[in-house]
Every structure is written in structure tokens, then in C-alpha cells.
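mind reviewing this stuff:

——
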Amino acid sequence: MWILSAAAVRRGDRLAAEAGLGGPVLMETAGRTAATLLWKVAGPFSPREPVVVLAGGGNNGGDGMVLARWVARWAGPAAVKVFLLAEPARLRGEAAVQWSLLARSGVPAIALAGEPAPGARQEARQNPGAEGGVVPAADAFFYHLEAAVARARVVVDALLGVGVRGALRPLAARALQVVGAAGVPVFALDLPSGLDADTGEAAPVVPRATWTVTFAAAKWGLLLGQGPERAGQVFVADIGWPQETGTGAGGTGSETEAGAPGGGSEGFPSARVLEAASVAALLPHRPWDAHKGWAGHVVVAGGRPGQVGAAVLAGTAALQAGAGTVTLAVPAPVRAEAAVHRPEIMTWALPATTGGEWDAAAATALAQREGERRGRVVRVIGPGLGQSPGAAACLAGWLGLDGPPATRGPEDPGPGAGSPAGVPAFPPTVLDADGLNLAARLGIDRLRERPGSFPLVLTPHPGEAARLLGWTTAQVQARRPLAALELARRSGAVAVLKGAGTLVAGPAGDLYACTRGHPGMASAGMGDALAGIVGAMLAQGLEPLAAALAAVFLHALAGELAAPAAGVPVQATEVIARLPAALQRVRRGLPRSAEALGVPGVAWLRPPLAG
């Protein structure tokens, strides 16, 4: 399943038209599919509790009128009522055609004739108007709309589509206020009216939809900003775009350079939704004769005084996610504290200052201890590391960047290298927390100079991403897809941009979005747990992008299993405890996104945990 920008959707429609699928065909398919889905989630319908369709004068309104015709065909004309917030004489294209067809179908419809003339309010109350296409003044229109919405079974929001941006016009805002104040279920077509299709920004009057059916592909605005809260349960309907338009409709890159935070949202790239079936295909298969060495060794470097818990969380998560062995590499003064939490986890005491902070000598000491191990070693650097001068020196050494910029050749491993047991001097590495903050001081572009370009995964939250990129946190949040890709491009690493709708980007331009998880996971230690899971996936042999994708999905799913009700607070330890269950659920199979309520061509953007 793809996520597209508004510009990409317009290109997709154009490509479909060039392939012979013009607007009328796509609109009929969209409207009928939406009507079928509406019947599934809110039907059956009757004249006592009709469907009210609030339609605009564009293509979104045309989709709504198609839906109304099909509801009338299945339940009778009295089971649906259309309110057109536009003047019929000004309708053009497909919307004009659909208004004409609606009139022939016998569906009750009321349209608007611009702003009310002086005295219209009094006339509206005295003679509210009749049904069947009569065009009353604005106050009369809203009089009828309020009355109809009050007794409606469901309101279909077909007012504004993906092409609308900026402030709402007064009449549109007033209509949405009427819908929002009624408290009835709302079924939005393509996206809730007034929600920006790219950024997810929404005006206060934008009603919260109970369901949204979006056409052809998901839109970024349904995943970003206020989109998830305003859209409710989201379905994606296949309306027949030719297969060759697929991602080509949105492109694999951006129309503008993906680097500058000032780039417009027109540059949002296409991305894939991370789904359970694809994650299951990535997970390592553990053979019957597997031993702990087969599953790799995760070394967590962190845990300064007062922050040992961060390293413990990362190590525990790595263990729960399948790592064969886990070691916490900590400053010597805190080793005893680190050792008491999990008997399965080993500890290494590394050189420290008198205050218990990291000593620069720990960089070489860690490499030497790793060199004594046989098999696959993975480092998770950063949870509880701190930002002392010693920690900074260690990070530079662990990344092979402790010399002047660009002074080493790609094959020169640098000082301190040595792998007496065949373990690479620079094993696959996950950078999190203070590992990222210290990397920002080095400069994100220097990460591309790491020796041999060893596998590297970055797991920043928006604040850490801002420090790495030299942006503000607000700029990162406003352009999350571009920020994720820029992190990956400039570092030459896989980047996991955490937050609501975590994004995973690869240095080759791959971009994925996770729709699982919930707001209750916004608590301390979640990032430490995710870093440990990424480390475990790398230790079991996954490539960096696959490891990040699997870890992000399992982490989010474990959060749902720990607290299934969205928004219920959940602690990192609870999420870690549910990782084996999340692994089992993915392997066994979650409900497939393409099996939404048995409606052909309709998929869940976020499938439920149970069918």
C-alpha cells in the first residue's frame, strides 16, 4: 500500500485518464465502493434515519452524489438526502454530470445560491423551502441542514477534497460546524474536509470522522499532524488506477530537493505502509539446531551514573526480541547496578573517570572485549551514554571518526582496530539517544566517512533529528517524510524517525511508514527499547533496512498488545514484555489489510488486531 502527496494523486488521476480511465469512470467506482463500505459500517438505512450527504462543488462532491444514488437504489430515495454547498449553475465537469444524474434518480437534494440577500433570514424561517433541487439562500440552506443532520443515521462528508488548502471559506466552515455540533457519526470521502492532504493540519471546525475512505492510495495528511485523530478508522479503496501508475503516480522522490527544510510539501515523496505480512517475510527463521551464537551478540554501550536504566531497557528488549546473548558495557562504577536487573544479561566494566563518567580509553577497551567474542557482534550505542568529553571521544572511536575529517581511506580501519577472533573492528551499529546527540556534534555528514561504511541505523526522535540536520524541531515535524530521507541521505545510514507514524528511510531513497502503535506509548524508555530491538534484528542477520522495519513494527505492535485501548498509558517494560507475543502474532498472521470487512478492493490503513 502506498502513501502519496496531493500532487502525486493529481498525477495519478492524469495518468489514469491517459490510459483510458477518465474522471467519470473513476468517480463512479469511488462513489459506489464508498456506498458499499458505508452500508457495511453504518447500514442498513431507512427514511426514519437517513444518510445525509454534504457535498461540495468539486470532484469530492461528485463522489458524494454517486454514493447518494447507490444508497437510494438500495434503500429507496427517502433513505438519503443531499446538501450541495454550491450553485448548480456553476458546477463543471463530473460534478455537473453527477448533479444531473442525481436529479433524475429522485434523491431529495437542496443546493445553495451564494450568500443570502438582505432579509433572507426572515424569509427562510417563514418559507424554509422545498426539497427536490430548490435553491434557497444561505440561512435557509443551513436551517434545512441542521434539521436533517439532527435525525441522520450518518453524515457523509463530501465537501472538500485533496486539492483544498489554507483557510476554509466562511460557508464551508459553517457547514462543518453544523456537522460537528450534531454529534452523529461522520463518514468522510477521501479525507475529512479541511484537513490538509499533505501535512495533516486541520482547522478547529474540521469534524472528527468516525470512518474515512480514501481513494486510490493513502494520503500523507491521514498519517501526519492531526490526521489520525480527525480521520477515525481509515480505509483505502482501489478505484481502478492502472497498475503502471502505482508509485509512478507519486514518484519515488520529490519535486524539490529533499534537503532544505524550506522546501514545500509538494515535495513529499511516496512511501510504503509497513504491513504485517511484509514484516513476517523479513523475520529471521531460527533453525532447529540453532544455538545462542547463531542469534548474535548485542553489546549495549551506555549507562552512565543515574541513567543505567536506559541501557538495561535496551539490553532487555534485545534479549526479548531474539538476540542470543546481550552484554551491557558500562562505566566500571555502575557495573554492579547494571548487573542486578536481568540475570541473563552479562556486563562489562569499562574505564571511567573518578566521577563515574566514560573515559576515552573505554573505546579501545570495548573493541578488545568484543574481539574476544566469536560470531556476530552488534553495538547499540547511546542509551544512558551521556555527553561528557570521554563519551564523545568513545563515540568517535567506535565510529572510526577519531581522526580529522576525510583523512582516512575507505579501507583504513584506523587506530585501535583489531579483531583477534575475526569480529569486525566496526560491527553493525545502532545509534540512539546521546549517541545521536554526540554524532550531531561530529556532523551528520561525517558519518558517511565511517570505515568501510559498516551497517549503521540511526533512531532519532524529532528533537534529535533536528540537531542532526541543523533544523528546528518544528521543521522536522512539519516535513517528516523529507526529514527522514535527509537523515538517511546525509548519513549514508538507515534512519528511523520516531514519533506518531514512525518513518523508516534508507540511503537509497526507500521510505516506509508505520501505522501501528498508539499515544499511550509516549513515555520514557520507549526509544531505548526500540534501539535494543533493532540491535537484536541485526544480530540475527538482517540487513539494516530490514532490521529497522521489523523492529519498528514489532515495537509498535507490542505497545498495542500491552495496552489495546488507544491512549492508555503503557510503560517501556510492559512493551518489552509483550515482544514475544508480538513476534508470534506477526508470524501467525494479523488480519490482512486487503480484507477490510469483506468489501472487494477496500483495505484497512491500520488493520485491527483481530478480524
